[in-house]
Specification:
The protein has about 325 residues and is mainly beta. Helices cover about 10% and strands about 35% of the residues. The protein has three helices and 19 strands. The strands form four sheets. It has a seven-stranded antiparallel sheet with strand order 11-12-13-17-16-15-14, sandwiched between helices. It has a five-stranded mixed sheet with strand order 2-8-7-4-5, with no helix packed on it. Strands 18-10-9-19 form a four-stranded antiparallel sheet. Strand 4 and strand 5 form a beta hairpin. The protein is globular, with a radius of gyration of 22 Å.
Length: about 325
């Protein structure tokens, strides 16, 4: 009887330890003080699902994306620049290209109005912008931020600091590790930092990588990729049993394996966290995205989902090699 009690106690402690690791938010980047935010030049601007209060810098050509609230029925969206109709989009995705070169310098307002199939208004949202085209030729796009050459090791040279993520950038870099046995893609202007040595207690197979704009500690968008080895025979159902908080998350399939996702926080509070846990090949892959930009969380969620979907389990899983490869964009 005493042996059974001891075994039950050990299982309980193991479950608590796993839950503590899975629920860890990871160290978050500090929230910038007043005046530190500055502006960002947007190649895409999202309107919705609620009104935005922070102006976006606008130069040249951009893509305007309207994201209606999920609880309303919208079959078409009219997009306005100030009071001038830009386009009426008849089907999702509700987006349109816009050339701001003919707009006057200064403050303007983007507005999206959603309608149902009967033509009735069911949703509306606005996003302030600040047009600044004097620094570039009319109709031209702003130059893309360039990253410093990437060494083939985790400790990277600083790249130019981007005040915030601009739109939904392409994933043009691949981090690949023979030692950890996986690869993952991320934006070309980002850096990666290995924090695996900070995991306490240390368990075999544990990994913790942090992605963001250098210096990562000040990045307004940070993606954490963390892996923890599970006990043999642990299934998704077993994981939920001993980590009951996951039962309230959305259940989905990611990389062909059971997964759980959720989003907490709000743009108004300048702290949104997207979380994803994937149960795959004897590991719990715990990813999160900490967004302190103050912008609508739609963009960071889409980028986070793209990064998570790029996770690739390698067959070797041995050796100590780490490589960072940059992919040229296809045009």
């Amino acid at each position: 009887m005493r042996l059974i009690v001891l075994l039950m106690a050990a299982l309980t402690l193991a479950a608590i330890s796993t839950a503590a690791i899975a629920q860890n938010d990871f160290p978050a980047p500090p929230v910038p003080g007043p005046g530190a935010m500055g502006g960002r030049i947007g190649r895409s601007i999202v309107i919705g699902p609620n009104n935005s209060t922070m102006p976006r810098l606008l130069r040249g050509k951009v893509t305007i994306i309207a994201t209606p609230a999920q609880d309303v029925k919208v079959t078409s969206v009219a997009i306005y620049f100030d009071n001038t109709l830009v386009v009426n989009v008849a089907q999702a995705p509700f987006k349109a290209d816009y050339d701001s070169s003919s707009a006057s310098e200064g403050d303007h307002l983007l507005k999206a109005i959603g309608h149902d199939s009967n033509g009735g208004q069911t949703w509306a949202a606005t996003a302030p912008v600040k047009v600044r085209n004097q620094a570039i030729k009319p109709g031209a796009n702003p130059p893309a931020p360039s990253a410093s050459p990437q060494p083939t090791k985790i400790s990277e040279k600083p790249v130019p600091v981007v005040e915030s993520f601009a739109g939904i950038p392409a994933l043009e870099k691949i981090y690949s590790s023979d030692q950890y046995g996986f690869s993952i893609r991320y934006p070309s202007a980002w850096a990666v930092k290995d924090e695996s040595s900070q995991i306490k207690p240390k368990r075999h197979g544990s990994v913790w990588l942090v992605f963001g704009v250098n210096p990562i500690e000040r990045s307004r968008l940070v993606v954490n990729v963390r892996r923890s080895k599970l006990d043999p025979g642990t299934t998704a159902e077993t994981f939920v049993k001993y980590n009951s908080y996951v039962s309230k998350w959305e259940q989905k399939t990611v990389l062909g394996s059971p997964a759980f996702g959720t989003t907490d926080g709000s743009a108004e509070s300048r702290r949104v966290i997207h979380r994803l846990i994937i149960i795959k090949d004897g590991y719990a892959w715990m990813l999160n995205c900490i967004d302190t930009s103050g912008e609508p969380a739609t963009e960071s969620k889409l980028l986070f989902e793209k990064i998570a979907s790029s996770l690739n389990i390698l067959t070797s899983g041995s050796g100590n090699g780490v490589s960072i490869e940059e992919i040229k964009s296809r045009k």
